[in-house]
Design brief:
Length: about 130
């Protein structure tokens, strides 16, 4: 096994899935729910958006890409850590920024599994 500082986002996602397969359906559902909410409330988000690295429309585009990937591969993402990690955490795709953010927010705000929360903090923050 690689040292943690040598793990790619795909490696971390695959390991997270393998350690906590029961969390994955809820994570995917939460990501899609947020995507739907962003689309439905686009104007409100765009007016108050303050993330300097990208506009809300850019963020919404990443959300839509993630939603499309989940819609297409959801069943296989739930079943396979490889599909989950390869589809959502491809290192040459900026969608990973949105997905990382959503996994962190899901772990912090919705997951009741304390070990999952620790794993997400370990893998995806700082």
């Amino acid at each position: 096994m690689k040292a943690i500082n040598q793990l790619t986002n795909m490696d971390k996602a695959k390991l997270l899935h393998e350690l906590f397969p029961d969390e994955i359906p809820a994570v995917l559902e939460d990501i899609q729910a947020v995507c739907t909410h962003f689309k439905a409330n686009r104007e409100a988000y765009a007016k108050t958006w303050d993330f300097g690295l990208m506009t809300f429309d850019m963020w919404l585009s990443l959300a839509e890409q993630a939603d499309k990937l989940i819609g297409k591969h959801r069943t296989n993402m739930v079943r396979s850590s490889k599909v989950f990690s390869e589809q959502l955490f491809h290192s040459f795709d900026y969608t990973v920024l949105f997905v990382n953010d959503r996994i962190i927010k899901y772990a912090e705000g919705k997951s009741e599994n304390s070990r999952f929360k620790l794993a997400v903090a370990l893998f995806f923050t700082a």
